[in-house]
Automatic annotation (TrEMBL):
One of its GO terms (biological process) is response to amino acid. It holds the Pfam family HTH_24. One of its GO terms (cellular component) is cytosol. This is Transcriptional regulator. One of its GO terms (molecular function) is sequence-specific DNA binding. It comes from Streptomyces lavendofoliae. The keyword DNA-binding applies. Residues 21-82 form the HTH asnC-type domain. InterPro entries: AsnC-type_HTH_dom, Dimeric_a/b-barrel, Tscrpt_reg_AsnC-like, Tscrpt_reg_AsnC/Lrp_C, WH-like_DNA-bd_sf, WH_DNA-bd_sf. Coiled coil: none annotated.
Amino acid sequence: MADGRDQGPPGDEYQAPPRPLDAIDRDILRILQADGRASIRSVADRVHVSRANAYARINRLIEDGVIRGFSARVNHERAGQGASAYITLKIVQNSWRTVREQLKALPGAAHIALVSGDFDVLLLVHTPDNRTLRELVLTRLQAIPEVLSTRTLLVFEETDLGRRPLTDDL
């Protein structure tokens, strides 16, 4: 259903303002967050609309960028990615777009965020082991000219909240 392209933060390309979501849209989002593999028929039955209506609504949510894609939730340790870390980066001012493109190409990069505070970028990575993580930080990250400094925070244990339902505050 989705083409998988991330629209990025505002300012990267023009996006029309989002259309307001109604109760049915929010219910559809809750269902798909809980089960991204739910069929159109199942979604339609659960929100009490026709299959055509459910299909059109899901496509509109995708086109509007509300739904950014569908994916599997992975247990990284069981998938051979036993070392995880959050890495903070200080970068050269106004180099965010350049740095972001280089970070997206890193093996194991799972999440990249431009943030405020004591550092500029927060990067989540998953690697097979600490040796690979060390090489990623010392060889790949610190070789990016716009990266001024890094700090690595090892993840000892994590809890995935990815399937939490939306709140009614939408």
